[in-house]
Each structure stands twice: as structure tokens, then as C-alpha cells.
Specification:
It is a single chain. The protein has two domains: about 5-250 and about 440-470, Nucleotidyltransferase, domain 5 (2-Layer Sandwich); about 305-405 and about 480-505, Nucleotidyltransferase, domain 5 (2-Layer Sandwich). Helix content is about 40%, strand content about 20%. The chain contains 17 helices and 24 strands. Strand 22 (about 410-415), helix 14 (about 420-430) and strand 23 form a beta-alpha-beta unit.
Length: about 500
């Protein structure tokens, strides 16, 4: 009978909670489950979720993994948490949720971002927090509640990030980690602690904030009540964990400077570790704490990467999804394969993937998605090709900014749902002009959370060693003949946003 320790990594994503069961000896993923939950858009450009849905999905996913693998709860050495960043979960004095969580891709706070910049000053804001004030961040959401939901704001006793609300349900305690806290606009990122200056300037009480720790620390333990719901043992250690991108980097082995992780999930991210705190002077890239103590990272973020492909799938309606079901195929796989049958440039069709506004490189919440160049000859495969190319061009914009800051990618690893497609992998290599390596584990942030749990439980002495266990695919994708065609196509893509920026503002 095997009795080696096991780890559970829990990722509270935008579309669902993912739980991965990991071998505590060699970091091999043994099983996983994802339970989806809805995304609510009560008004244009608003994005919210019910935190109770995160908890229900977590309980279901953990139970399904444990039951499917017939795991004795005593073998679980630790739990690790990751999740979507920046979201605001407001709790009252009894620990009850006051209102639906406002998410990372919500764009309602443009006025509050302008106010924060005025109060703090742009240069000081970047120096302190590593970032400009962006609509997705947590602090502007708190100010928005103060201005627009005064009664609810007065009831606030604590504010938590999405994964930390799940930790609160697991343990009854309020903790967060330096990587996730970096995205609140309330952390002194260079010192890796809450910023008294930001809190005082924005009039946010320190008592509202969770205790912040490094990512590999076992911050809390599983309560008796939560253990009963999950089918686990009371007292099981819970690592601090990390925001989804830092956890994704750990789960992809992206620790050393010179390696870059490009992740295509709902958002698209180019993540580059750096050994010292050096924010991009104009704030066009995020500068956050890495999950590794004493390390930071620069990050370019697209708001609608895989989310754009999901939008296209949904736009095609029931007929396409029924067709996919009839074939026994994933609709995303069909779209990617159809895109592969179309030549680069999609017969003159260009897609701007700004369905939720955009961060990198434009920092424009008013930007909108565009199909440019539509004609009668264009069909579904052309649309799919244009969407994939638009996303990939946006990711190349992020890489160009990283190169300009002195963080050029020596090695690019790709992960997330987009990395499954051979067509998309080839497009990434062609547009980047550089070979890309596929991460073998498809579990990304959940895998990183499990590795952090292993460090917190003492199975591995540090995060670097744990991340070194991550496997990459033996298959490397190198640029092909189409790479020569893409510079001109990128020039067309990049010319559209400046031409339309004023119209986006007027439309908004």
C-alpha cells in the first residue's frame, strides 16, 4: 500500500474552481477536477461573481478528486491556494459577504483611478506600488463603493481577494500573500508589506486588510467545520499560496531571470522574473512580487485572450456547439483546426481583442473589440484565424515591452488552454520570432498552488527546488516559413488602435 504524501492545489479562476491532486514526492499531477460557476455582467463593462459560488465549487471539486482517486484524507500533507487577482470581496463584521465580488476585468472605476493618481502622484504611485492606477485593481473598487454604494461601504469590516475568501471559509482566518497583494494598489511592492502611505492617502483602514506573508508559508490550518464539508482532516496546513500568475509561473518552472512564461487563459499574460525591484518607468507593465522570496516580476496583461476565443464560440451559438457535440469534439479544438486551414492574415481580416478594454500596452478601459476588413468571402475559419492572430499580436506587444526594459526572454514557455493547440503554438513561435516550449502540466496555477503547499508542509525546502521539478514538453515549436509574413501583418494590427482610440472614447 502506498502512503506517500499528497498535495491539493486549488485555483479560484474566473470561469471555475480547479483542484489538482499532486504527488508530494515528484510533483506529478495525479488527478484534477474543474467545477464551473457563472460570471455576471449587470451592466456593460461590469463583471461580478458570487463568492459563495467559489466555495461551493471548491467543495465539490475537492470531494470529486478525493472520491475518484479513493484518497485517504490522512495522506493530504497540505493545501495551496491560487486565484484570479484584484477582485474585491467585502465582508461585514460577522464575516458575511456584503455584495457580489467586483472582478479583475471590471471597468467601472476609471474615475476612481484618476482620483488615486491625482492624490498620490503618478511617479510616487509607480515607485510605491510598481503600477499605475488601473481599473481592474482592488483599491479603486473600494473607492467606487464609497462613492456609489455608501450604505454597503459603511458596513465593511474586511476586504479580501478571491482566493483569500476561500481561505477564510477553509480556516476562519484572514491571510494573503505578497504576490496577490501586489495587485491591490495597496502594497509597498519593494518592501513586500502593506503601504501605510497608500492606506492613509486613500482613507482605507489597515484593520480591513488581511495579514500578508510570503507565498510558501503555511499561513493557516483547516478548521473542523471546513474539514467536514471537504472530507479532509482538521488541522491540515494551508499555504499562503499566490495570485494566479505567480502561481502559474511556479507551476511552469518560471523562476530565473531570462525565462518568460506566456499564458493563454481567459486573460493573456507575459510574465518575466526579475531579481530586483525595478518597475517600468511609465507603468506600462505590472511590477509585482514573485512567489519566490526576494524576487519580483514584470508582467504584461491582455484582458481578453482566451476570453476572446470563448466569446467567438458563444457567438456562433447552439448550432456550432451542437455540431461539435455531434462530432465528439471540443469546440475550441475545432476552431483552432479550422484557423489552421487559413493562410496568415485571414484574407485581410484583422481582430482587435479589446472586448473588455485593454491593459498592456494601451491601458485603455474604453477600448473595444473590432473585426476590421470583413467581406462576403469570410467564413467561420477566417474569424477563428483572425481572433487567434489578434490575441497573438497582443502578446507580442507585451513581449516587446519586456525586451525594452532589459528583460529579454532567453526561453519562452507557454501554458494555459491556448498551449494545447498545435496551430496556436506554431503561430506563437512565428509571431514571437523565437522558439517556444510547452509546459507539460496543463494545470498551471493550481499546480503552482500545490507546489507552494508542499513547501509550506515541509516536503521541499524552498520554492526554487519545488519549481525545478516541473516538466516541460520534449516538443519545442520553432518559427516556420510564416514568420516572415507576420511583421507586415503586425504593422496593420498595430495601426488600428491609434486610428480608433478617439472613436472608442466617443462610443464609451
Amino acid at each position: 500500500m502506498h502512503d506517500f504524501p499528497l498535495l491539493l492545489g486549488i485555483d479560484i479562476g474566473t470561469t471555475g474552481a480547479k483542484v489538482v491532486l499532486v504527488d508530494g514526492r515528484d510533483a506529478n499531477a495525479l488527478a484534477h477536477r474543474t467545477v464551473e460557476y457563472p460570471l455576471h455582467m449587470p451592466r456593460p463593462n461590469w463583471c461580478e461573481q458570487d463568492p459563495h459560488d467559489w466555495w461551493r465549487a471548491t467543495v465539490q471539486a475537492v470531494r470529486e478528486v478525493m472520491q475518484a482517486e479513493r484518497v485517504d484524507a490522512g495522506r493530504i500533507a497540505g493545501l495551496g491556494l491560487s486565484g484570479q487577482m484584484h477582485g474585491l470581496v467585502a465582508l461585514d463584521a460577522a464575516g458575511e459577504v456584503i455584495r457580489p465580488a467586483i472582478l479583475w476585468n471590471d471597468q467601472r472605476t476609471a474615475a476612481q483611478c484618476e482620483e488615486i493618481t491625482r492624490l498620490v502622484g503618478l511617479e510616487r504611485l509607480i515607485q510605491l506600488t510598481g503600477n499605475t492606477a488601473l481599473t481592474g485593481f482592488t483599491a479603486p473598487k473600494v473607492l467606487w463603493m464609497r462613492e456609489h454604494e455608501a450604505e454597503a461601504h459603511q458596513r465593511i469590516a474586511s476586504i479580501l481577494l478571491p482566493k483569500d475568501y476561500v481561505r477564510y471559509r477553509l480556516s476562519g482566518e484572514r491571510f494573503t500573500d505578497v504576490a496577490d497583494a501586489s495587485g491591490t494598489l495597496l502594497l509597498d511592492v519593494s518592501r513586500r508589506e502593506w503601504s501605510g502611505e497608500m492606506l492613509e492617502t486613500l482613507e482605507i483602514p489597515r484593520s480591513w486588510l488581511a495579514t500578508v506573508t510570503e507565498c510558501g508559508v503555511a499561513s493557516t490550518r483547516l478548521s473542523a467545520e471546513a474539514a467536514g464539508e471537504l472530507g479532509l482532516l482538521e488541522g491540515t496546513p494551508i499555504a499562503a499560496g499566490a495570485g494566479d500568475q505567480a502561481a502559474q509561473a511556479v507551476g511552469s518552472g518560471i523562476i530565473e531571470e531570462g525565462t518568460v512564461c506566456v499564458t493563454i487563459g481567459t486573460s493573456g499574460v507575459a510574465f518575466a522574473p526579475i531579481g530586483a525591484y525595478r518597475p517600468e518607468p511609465r507603468g506600462r507593465l505590472h511590477a509585482f512580487c514573485h512567489a519566490v522570496p526576494g524576487a519580483w516580476h514584470l508582467m504584461g496583461v491582455m484582458l481578453s485572450a482566451g476570453g476572446s476565443l470563448r466569446w467567438l464560440r458563444d457567438l456562433l451559438g447552439d448550432e456550432f456547439n451542437e455540431y461539435s457535440c455531434y462530432l465528439g469534439r471540443d469546440p475550441y479544438d475545432i476552431l483552432c483546426e479550422e484557423a489552421g486551414r487559413i493562410a496568415p492574415g485571414a484574407d485581410g481580416l484583422i481582430f482587435l481583442p479589446y472586448l473588455s478594454g485593454e491593459r498592456t500596452p494601451h491601458n485603455d478601459p474604453k477600448a473595444r473589440g473590432v473585426f476590421f476588413g470583413l467581406s462576403l468571402r469570410h467564413r467561420r475559419p477566417h474569424l477563428a484565424r483572425a481572433v487567434l492572430e489578434g490575441i497573438t499580436f497582443g502578446l507580442r506587444d507585451c513581449l516587446d515591452l519586456l525586451r525594452a526594459t532589459g528583460a529579454p526572454p532567453r526561453e519562452i514557455r507557454i501554458s494555459g488552454g491556448g498551449a494545447r493547440s498545435a496551430v496556436w503554438r506554431q503561430m506563437l513561435a512565428d509571431v514571437f520570432g523565437q522558439e517556444v516550449t510547452t509546459c507539460q502540466s496543463p494545470h498551471g496555477a493550481a499546480m503552482g498552488a500545490a507546489l507552494l503547499a508542499g513547501v509550506g508542509a515541509g516536503l521541499w525546502p524552498d520554492i526554487r527546488l519545488a519549481a525545478g521539478l516541473v516538466r516541460t514538453s520534449p516538443h519545442v515549436t520553432t518559427p516556420g516559413p510564416a514568420a516572415d509574413e507576420y511583421p507586415a501583418l503586425r504593422d496593420r494590427f498595430r495601426a488600428l488602435y491609434p486610428a480608433l482610440r478617439g472613436e472608442f472614447a466617443r462610443l464609451s
